[in-house]
């Protein structure tokens, strides 16, 4: 009687730009009887690996730098006509699964599903069992009616309004006359607060909040212009500053802030209740003019655009959050069924993954909070002398493989936490869209210091460069990850610290993002 032939395990290649997730998938697949023969961090590297190893199964992420999964998929299918290629991504199945299948995928599983369910799905696909794409998660049921009734109802604007009222400079009434409204200390974005004291008493709010401070919190843009040929800006609230695309201080001619708006205001200046559409940096808006005794008020309504921005922001942020959440959930699941079998080194590696993914979530929520503070005009900046070497070391240690070059040892005047946020965003941006090697260089710039973040990727397409630092800006053809807030936050924080941020294309390729701040 002859011995039964030994069945060889199916050979798997995992292609995903998140090393922590690759490790979890490798543990799960190995536990399930598969042989993970290689891993890759982007589509091009994945093509090279499958060309050399000819695996039976490929798990392929969609959103990756250098080459994304949809680009790599047709080539992999030609190289592996009989292999099973399963797309793994955080995008919604209805959005991307049809495109992935059309490009040659055999299945689609969403990040966020449990490792056991992903393993079951891979088993079914490789054994020929037809399966629909796995759902990401189950939406929790609504709370019982008695719990809903017990939720305290609060006014979401009361806290922020009071905080601004305590620190905002006093302004004249928008309908009052006199030259006091032309003061050179008008609101600019961001509005700097000195502390976070909050008082929520309605009576206190009523007594403290002036009409100008209330308008500063308005969800539409408001600009007061001096009624003279140059239409100098007297006041612009936070939303108006965002729509104009940059901070415009009191006394700035409207023509410098927005030539298109200035031309239309000049044309309609004598009309009663004139209303027209105009394209601003922040999007297309409807402008309405109102006249006071000595000035012109311009109301900028961008409701339709803001709804579109909000929808895109929710979609991209949800996708960005899914990755870290999937890794953290996967680690918890892995420790649940195999912690006793792991050695100390492997457990420490998983715990380090949790820390990395938690920092990523913290970075995302920090950008969301900062963007909200920018819109409300309540951003807080704490300026002080800062040792750049210490901040850079804190950002790159245990997170990035970066060469650091310090050519100037002077300190800068900045907010250390905001500076760390800016550097983290630029380095994350370089890793998402650029290529190694990465360099952070500190160099003199006269009385200032410049901090360069350099990568050797393809660089930013010329047609997209003017949009780089706008809110929710993302190139239309990219599948790479990102909320579209990172560079917008960097630009606004730099301006809030009397600095700037610029982009310079490399020669012949690569990107350099430069933060310039005042030296101490």
TrEMBL record:
<feature type="region of interest" description="Disordered">
    <location>
        <begin position="131"/>
        <end position="202"/>
    </location>
</feature>
<keyword id="KW-0902">Two-component regulatory system</keyword>
<feature type="compositionally biased region" description="Gly residues">
    <location>
        <begin position="175"/>
        <end position="185"/>
    </location>
</feature>
<dbReference type="GO" id="GO:0005886">
    <property type="term" value="C:plasma membrane"/>
</dbReference>
<dbReference type="InterPro" id="IPR036890">
    <property type="entry name" value="HATPase_C_sf"/>
</dbReference>
<feature type="compositionally biased region" description="Polar residues">
    <location>
        <begin position="153"/>
        <end position="162"/>
    </location>
</feature>
<dbReference type="InterPro" id="IPR001789">
    <property type="entry name" value="Sig_transdc_resp-reg_receiver"/>
</dbReference>
<protein>
    <recommendedName>
        <fullName>histidine kinase</fullName>
        <ecNumber>2.7.13.3</ecNumber>
    </recommendedName>
</protein>
<feature type="modified residue" description="4-aspartylphosphate">
    <location>
        <position position="61"/>
    </location>
</feature>
<dbReference type="Pfam" id="PF00512">
    <property type="entry name" value="HisKA"/>
</dbReference>
<keyword id="KW-0597">Phosphoprotein</keyword>
<dbReference type="InterPro" id="IPR003661">
    <property type="entry name" value="HisK_dim/P_dom"/>
</dbReference>
<feature type="domain" description="Response regulatory">
    <location>
        <begin position="11"/>
        <end position="126"/>
    </location>
</feature>
<dbReference type="Pfam" id="PF02518">
    <property type="entry name" value="HATPase_c"/>
</dbReference>
<keyword id="KW-0808">Transferase</keyword>
<dbReference type="InterPro" id="IPR004358">
    <property type="entry name" value="Sig_transdc_His_kin-like_C"/>
</dbReference>
<dbReference type="InterPro" id="IPR058245">
    <property type="entry name" value="NreC/VraR/RcsB-like_REC"/>
</dbReference>
<dbReference type="GO" id="GO:0003677">
    <property type="term" value="F:DNA binding"/>
</dbReference>
<feature type="domain" description="Histidine kinase">
    <location>
        <begin position="316"/>
        <end position="520"/>
    </location>
</feature>
<dbReference type="InterPro" id="IPR005467">
    <property type="entry name" value="His_kinase_dom"/>
</dbReference>
<dbReference type="InterPro" id="IPR036097">
    <property type="entry name" value="HisK_dim/P_sf"/>
</dbReference>
<keyword id="KW-0418">Kinase</keyword>
<dbReference type="GO" id="GO:0000155">
    <property type="term" value="F:phosphorelay sensor kinase activity"/>
</dbReference>
<keyword id="KW-0238">DNA-binding</keyword>
<dbReference type="InterPro" id="IPR011006">
    <property type="entry name" value="CheY-like_superfamily"/>
</dbReference>
<dbReference type="InterPro" id="IPR003594">
    <property type="entry name" value="HATPase_dom"/>
</dbReference>
<dbReference type="Pfam" id="PF00072">
    <property type="entry name" value="Response_reg"/>
</dbReference>
């Amino acid at each position: 009687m002859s011995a039964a032939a030994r069945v060889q395990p199916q050979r798997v290649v995992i292609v995903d730009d998140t090393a922590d997730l690759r490790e979890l998938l490798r543990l799960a697949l190995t536990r399930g009887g598969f042989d993970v023969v290689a891993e890759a961090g982007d589509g091009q590297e994945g093509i090279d690996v499958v060309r050399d190893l000819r695996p039976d199964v490929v798990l392929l992420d969609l959103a990756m730098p250098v080459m994304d999964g949809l680009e790599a998929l047709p080539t992999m299918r030609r190289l592996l006509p009989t292999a099973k290629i399963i797309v793994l991504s955080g995008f919604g199945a209805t959005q991307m699964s049809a495109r992935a299948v059309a490009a040659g995928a055999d299945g689609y599983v969403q990040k966020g599903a449990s490792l056991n369910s992903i393993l079951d799905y891979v088993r079914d696909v490789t054994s020929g069992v037809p399966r629909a794409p796995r759902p990401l998660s189950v939406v929790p049921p609504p709370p019982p009616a008695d719990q809903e009734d017990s939720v305290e109802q609060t006014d979401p604007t009361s806290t922020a309004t009071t905080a601004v009222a305590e620190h905002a400079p006093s302004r004249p009434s928008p309908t009052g006359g006199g030259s006091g409204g032309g003061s050179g200390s008008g609101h600019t974005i961001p509005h700097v607060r000195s502390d976070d004291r909050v008082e929520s008493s309605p009576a206190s709010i009523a007594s403290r909040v002036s009409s100008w401070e209330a308008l500063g919190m308005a969800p539409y843009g408001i600009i007061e212009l001096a009624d003279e040929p140059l239409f100098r800006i007297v006041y612009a609230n936070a939303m108006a500053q965002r729509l104009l695309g940059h901070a415009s201080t009191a006394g700035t001619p409207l023509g410098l802030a927005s030539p298109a708006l200035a031309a239309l205001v000049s044309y309609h200046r004598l009309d009663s209740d004139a209303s027209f559409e105009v394209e601003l940096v922040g999007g297309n808006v409807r402008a309405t003019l109102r006249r006071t005794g000595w000035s012109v008020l311009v109301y900028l309504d961008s409701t339709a655009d803001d709804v579109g921005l909000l929808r895109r922001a929710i979609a991209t942020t949800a996708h960005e959050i899914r990755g870290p959440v999937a890794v953290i959930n996967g680690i918890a699941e892995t420790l649940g069924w195999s912690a006793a079998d792991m050695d100390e080194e492997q457990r420490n590696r998983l715990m380090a993954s949790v820390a990395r993914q938690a920092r990523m979530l913290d970075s995302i929520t920090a950008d969301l909070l900062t963007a909200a503070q920018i819109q409300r005009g309540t951003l807080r900046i704490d300026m002080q002398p800062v040792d750049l070497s210490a901040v850079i070391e804190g950002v790159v240690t245990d997170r990035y493989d970066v060469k650091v070059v310090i050519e100037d040892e002077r300190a800068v005047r900045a907010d250390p936490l905001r500076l760390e946020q800016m550097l983290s965003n630029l380095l994350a941006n370089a890793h998402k869209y650029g290529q190694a090697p990465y360099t952070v260089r500190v160099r003199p710039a006269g009385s200032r210091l410049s901090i360069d973040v350099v990568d050797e990727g393809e660089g930013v397409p010329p047609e997209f460069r003017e949009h780089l630092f706008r809110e929710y800006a993302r190139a239309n053809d990219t599948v790479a990850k990102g909320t579209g807030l990172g560079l917008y936050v960097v630009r606004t924080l730099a301006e809030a610290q009397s600095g700037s941020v610029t982009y310079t294309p490399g020669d012949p390729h690569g990107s350099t993002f430069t933060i310039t701040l005042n030296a101490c």
